[in-house]
Fold:
Amino acid sequence: MRNLARVLAFDVAAPLAAISALLIIGVMLEWPLWWVSVCSILCLLIVEAVLVNAVLYRRDSVTVGTDDDKPGLRLAVVGVASAALLSAAAIGYNSWVQPDRVFTADSADVVRIATEVAEATATFTPSDPNSSIERAASLMVPERAEAFKAQFGSATADMVKRNMSAQAITMSAGLETLGPSSASVAVLMRGTQSAPGQDPSSAVLSLRVALSRESGSWRVVDVSPINAR
Amino acid sequence: MPETDQVTQSQGRRTGMVSGFGIASAVLALAAVVAAAVIAVMWSGHRAAASERSYQARSMQAAAEWTGVLINMNTDNVEASLVTLRDGTVGELNSGFDASIAPYREVVKTLRSRTTGRVESVSIEEFHRDLDSQSGRRPPESLAPELADRTDTVLVVATSVSENAGAKPTTVRWNLRLGVSDVDGKPMISRLESVR
Structure:
C-alpha cells in the first residue's frame, strides 16, 4: 500500500505535473518558437527518464519512488516538478494577471485623460484665454502641444475680441480601441457658446482623442472631430 | 518472507536519515500543489477577462451593423431594413418597434429619399453623465434580468446624407447610445437613445 502511494506520487504524478507545467507555460507564452523547442527537449527528457525508470523496474523490481537507497533522487524528482509548476505560476502572473490589471487600469486612465483634454479644447473664457489651452497642452505629447497652441492662438484672439465664452461638458465617453501603447477614445460633449447680446447656443460635439503611452504615462497625440464630413 | 523484511527495513530507515529528504520532498510537493491551485485561479480569471473583451467586441460589432442598417434606409429597402432592425432588437424596444418606427417608415416612403450613411465611430461607453437628470427625466430602464445576462452601452457616431426628391441634400449627424444586451450569448439592441 505504501509502495503504491510512492509509485503514484514519484513515478507517475511528478513527471505528469512537470510535463503539464511545461505545456501550460507554452499556453501562457502563446508558444513562441524558442519555447516550442525548449519544451519539446524538456518533455522528451522527462519521457526518457520515465522509460528508463520503467525498464529498471522490470530489471530490479524497484523504481525511483520505492528505492529506499536513493532518497536524494526522489527529492530531485519532486524538486524538478515543483520548480516547473512554480515557474508556470510566476510566468502566469506575468503574462495573464499583470496585463489584465494593466488593461483595466488603462481603460479608466485613457478615458479620464481624453475627457479632460476634450473638455479643455472646447472651453474658453475671455478673461483667462490661455488657461484651458495650457491645461489641454499639458496632457499632450510635446510636439502635438506646440502645434495645438499655435493652431488655437489665432482663434483665441478673435474670440477675445468678440468677448465670447465657450463651455463643454462631457455627456458620454467610450473606448474605441485600447492596446498596450496606443488608445482611441470617443467623447461626446455638450458645448455651449455665448457672446454678449446673443442667446447661448449649444450643440453636441463629438471628438476622437488618440492617445499613446509615453514613458509609462498616457499622453494625447491627436484630437479630431468624429463628424468631419 | 522478503516482504516483511522490506517493511521492517524501510521503517527502520524512516526514523533515521530518510526523514530529512522526506520533509524536504513534502515541502516541495506542497509548494507544487499551491502553485497548481494558483495557476488554476489565474487561468479562470484570465479566461473571464478574455471572454469579456471578446464579448465587448461582438457588442460593438452588433451595434455598428444595426446602426448601419438604420442610417442607410431608402425607399427601396425600407421594408427589408425594418425587418432586419426589428430582428436585432429585444425587450421594450422590440415590442414597441412597429409603433415607434411607423411614422419614420411613412416619411421615408413619401419623401422617396435616398440616404447613404457611414458609421464613423463605435465605442464601449466607460463614462456617462446625465445632464438632463435634474429636469425630472427618468433614466431608461435596463432590461429585465431574466431576458438578458448583462447590458452594455455602446456609443455610435454616424453621418448620413439624404437626398430627398427635389430638394438639396441634408446631412444628419447621429450620436447614439445603444443598449446592447446579451441574450443567450447573442448581443441584441435593447435601448436606443440619441445624445442631445
Residues 1-16 of chain B have pLDDT under 50 and may be disordered. Chain B has one domain: 39-126+145-194. The radius of gyration of chain B is 31 Å.
